[in-house]
Amino acid sequence: MTKLDLFFDPTRCFIGGKWVAPAGGEYLPIENPSTGETIGEIARGQAADVEAAVAAAQAGLAGAWGKTPAFERGRILTRMGQAVLARVDELARIEAMDVGKPLKQARADAVALARYLEFYGGACDKIMGETIPYLDGYTVYTLREPHGVTGHIIPWNYPMQIIGRSVTAALAMGNAAVLKPAEEACLTAIAFAKIAEEAGLPAGALNVVPGLGEEAGAALTAHPGVNHISFTGSLAVGELIQRAAAKNVIPVTLELGGKSPQLVFEDADLDRALPFLVNAGIQNAGQTCSASSRILVHRSIHDQVLERMAERYRALRVGPAIDDLDVGPLVSGRQQEIVGEFLSDLGGGEIAARGEVVSGAPTGGHYLAPALVSGVKPDNRLAQDEIFGPVQVVIPFDDEAEAVATANGTEFGLVAGVWSRDGGRTMRVAKAIRTGQVFLNNYGAGGGVELPFGGVGKSGHGREKGFEALYGFSVLKTVAAWHG
Ligand code: NAP
Ligand code: MG
Q1: Ligand 1 neighbourhood includes 330 CB (under 6 angstroms)
Q2: How many domains does the chain have?
């Protein structure tokens, strides 16, 4: 299945409510990672397109969008959520073709996008300021106002979910957004613009400029007309974004990488824990910021947990996204090389088990059999660096203090899981761990649109999801009135 059947034109940028060809007249190929085939092309947006998009966003704020009341913004977002739900299977198929995500997982992303639209659609008119008791003769109140133009630069691994938590929250607060999706994953971002147009989102509120990071992305980051940047992606690019934002003295939200641990204590309910331990490593072929790539296990149950995980690994089937197996291809040949390179030097560790690429998987696809690795020291690069592929390391610990120290012993701090039947211990460990989210006897809470999310350390700063995102996408103004 190689034909793309789309309800929008993928070769256009969406700027100021219009579908326009990229100013430079250049295009980039769309690759299907399951086959390696080119299945279409997208616009190669550049500085001139970003310029037009920022101007359109400013015009939108000065015009109809800026005057749209909060409840009406809510209605529009809610309509968009309904439109996404009506197209869930279609969006899933498009995403599967574009980024190699197995259909069920792609469908879950589309459903999550709808949930974000529902959540933020419902929240638009429920964000309020305060009145503050002050001196005699004064009335003081606060206003929550949009930043203005928000820039959104997102990665290829969960385009729909990240659009949901970033762009829809910005729109809910009345900002005008310019979105630069990842070159490898532009289709659902363009689909989102089409859905916004059909739902009646006023011109300029949302602008989408597909293109390369170093071109469209860099132009957006450096643009003096942008008032806030929300970036989700790698640590290396995150540093560039923060530096560029410093030049314009604007706030940034950085959602970067992770090396998230799950701590399995000797009293854990292993029957419940095991599916979470493995799924958190292989979901989306491990190309997940909150992937749990380190499994820390009490030494007394280490061999048992390793063997039970290995059993599951041996049963994993890897193949074309459209066949909807456990694991799809990696997003690109480059990603396949990066992960393969990590596995070429196990630093004293050994492969405990691997999944299997199904026979007949197209030879041009970027397949990699998931790998479970044991015997790796906590300071080895396999246990320190974000691999971004279906690879997990299992590391023993002797006591709670060592478990916490190892969990905290990387430069990242995104998510952690704790498995123990001792309630006191889970709460103690939750406090001691340095991450933005901690899950006790679960991992990921099924996505959690409502739950604030973000990192500490090199995993980034700022929070998206939940109401917290709305505070991040707004500015607080204090008004002090003297009336005598
Ligand atoms: P990436 O290489 O950093 O790219 C992310 C985005 O930045 C893409 O749109 C990219 O454009 C753009 N970009 C690249 N260079 C740029 C520049 N000089 N200026 C402005 N923009 C630029 O990350 P990725 O490989 O797509 O995604 C994987 C990473 O994202 C992992 O580290 C993962 O942990 C992280 N991630 C974090 C979260 C989180 O919430 N914490 C969620 C998902 C992913 P092009 O790709 O089109 O060139
Ligand atoms: Mg692609």
Answers
A1: no
A2: 2
Are both 249 and 118 inside the same structural domain? yes
Q: Residue 166 CA: which ligand is closest?
A: 1
Kindly report the CATH number assigned to the domain that includes residue 159. 3.40.605.10
Distance 257 CA to ligand 1 centre (A): 9
**Catalytic residue check, 214:** no
Q: Phi and psi (nearest 5°) for 323?
A: -80, -10
pLDDT in tens, 319-338: 999 999 999 999 999 999 99
The Cα 156–Cα 15 span in angstroms is: 21
Question: Which residue has the CA at smallest separation from atom 26 of ligand 1?
Answer: 155
Q: Are residues 308 and 330 in the same domain?
A: yes
Domain-embedded: residue 452: no
Q: Above 60 in pLDDT, residue 422? A: yes
Catalytic-role residue among 289, 356, 386, 464: 289
For strands 176-180 and 206-208, give the pairing: parallel
Q: What is the pLDDT of residue 446?
A: 84
pLDDT (mean) for 70-79: 98
Based on the fold, state whether residues 283 and 242 are members of the same structural domain.
Answer: no
The CA 284 to ligand 2 mean position distance, Å, reads 14
Residue 87 has a pLDDT of 98
Q: Is the beta carbon of 142 within 6 A of some atom in ligand 1?
A: no
Tell me: do 436 and 465 sit in the same domain: no
pLDDT, position 1: 42
Q: What is the pLDDT of residue 399?
A: 98
Within this chain, do residues 435 and 465 fall inside the same structural domain, yes or no? no
Q: Which domain holds residue 395?
A: 260-411+415-447
Residue 3 has pLDDT above 70, yes or no: no
Q: Which of 153, 339, 449 to mutate to test the pocket of ligand 1 (most atoms within 8 A of CB)?
A: 153
Pair (101, 225) in one structural domain: yes
Beta bridge partners of 261: 294
- Looking at the fold, whether 103 and 165 belong to one and the same domain comes out as yes
Q: Is 13 a catalytic residue?
A: no
> What's the rounded mean pLDDT across residues 268-288?
98
* Residue 282, Ramachandran bin (φ over 0: left; ψ between -120 and 50: alpha; else beta): alpha
Please tell me whether the overall predicted TM-score, pTM, comes out greater than 0.90 for this model: yes
State the average pLDDT for the chain. Answer: 97
Enumerate residues 6+ apart whose C-beta is below 8 A from 311.
353
- Give residue 256's pLDDT: 97
The closest of 192, 217, 219, 216 to 206, measured between CA atoms, is 192
Q: Is residue 456 part of a domain?
A: no
Whether residues 138 and 282 fall in one domain = no
Strand-strand pairing, 27-32 and 13-15:
unpaired
